[in-house]
Amino acid sequence: MSAHCQLTGAKPGFGKTISHSHRRSSRRFDPNVQSKRYWLPSEGRYVRLRLSARGIKTVDVIGVEAAVARIRARGVKV
Description:
The protein is an alpha+beta fold.
């Protein structure tokens, strides 16, 4: 699950590419997932999170402590 956001749970969507002649072939819509490192003051260490662009904005709003708590509540090891 490489294209998967740890915070929002965003994962690839699937659909069709349609050519000019209207032939259809399968394709995959990947979320904008990036690896980002945050300082976690409560544990005195850095954590590396794989977040989508929306997930990064969410961390900016709610803070890294609350974001890590949400990720752990989903059962993901951080």
